[in-house]
Amino acid sequence: MLVDSHCHLDHLDLGHRDGGLNAVLAAARARGVTQFLTVAVDIPSSRALIELTAAHDNVYSSVGAHPLQKVAQAVPLVEELVALADNPKVVAIGESGLDNFYSSDTIDWQRESFINHLKASQQAKKPIIVHTRDAREETIALLREHSLSEAGVLHCFTESWEMAQSALELGFYISFSGIVTFANAKELRDVASKVPLDRILVETDSPWLAPVPHRGKQNEPQYVREVAQCIADLRGISLDALAEATTDNFHRLFNIPR
Ligand SMILES: [Zn+2]
User: What superfamily does domain 2-253 belong to in CATH?
Assistant: First the structure.
């Protein structure tokens, strides 16, 4: 049994898919992927995802605003995030964080937004989903300052082993996407073989970043199986063992009873 711990179900192009989202979820279930965390990228999508999760079993959501937003959008307020999170199927705050790779010109907006998400995570007692790219030291410094009782996950991890270690010391989990299967991801595969088994999550980040051998296609939650298989192979364990551990980790981090 596998979990897709980070997908964007509301961004899938379902135009050519008979059965729409139900068909996507059924295809995933047929491949052993039975739970899904669909992650918000702004406040309107946070609201829409709460409705989506009400209509589907084993689909959970987060509330938050992605760091790569148009600067025109207001920074989400702590109270606003905490109020939206007051729903049993909202299991996390985010995704939020710092991204200097795609958008260093909006870094002030990103920082203000990230700090509000971190505060909301502590107040709502729900873990934070962190997007991080090319901002290692400042990200860790902010986590150290603001993630005192509630940790979270560094999602779609592509940074160094040193950064992973710093996050692990703070109680964070590390989530790997299809990038780990890419031919040029040697350093990342090394990280994925070293993170303790009780701190790993797997995700698709679909509809983006389809893993090998599906590159170029729209990514879907069912392909988290390829991500999990890749990491199981790296670690010399069975897919079942990796699936069991990452599913346990998902329930523990997001406080979802098994
Ligand atoms: Zn995402």
Answer: Metal-dependent hydrolases (3.20.20.140)
